[in-house]
Amino acid sequence: MSWSSVLSEPVILAKYEIDVSLVAPGITLGIAMLPIRECLAMRLLSKKQVREKVLYSPAHIARLEAAGKFPKRVRLGAARVGWIEQEVEDWLRELASKRDTPGS
Question: What's the pTM?
């Protein structure tokens, strides 16, 4: 089955602007060279969503953040903050990789 039989209309997956002056002569750019992180939309998590994802209290999250051991929050307004979901997920993956490393 091809994608053309599944999709009835063309779909644009991502839009990139590449400064070709930064590319060495003779190098061809292809979609495989683009970092996957750039094609994902940034999503912010609320304090409640972070608490549910990492299973820590807001006070402990704040302590870890102040110690530089947790992703920094993004100030959205006078009384609203959020965390970039990808950064929180990367932090969780790092913890999991330490768990899987002998001697940790």
Answer: 0.59
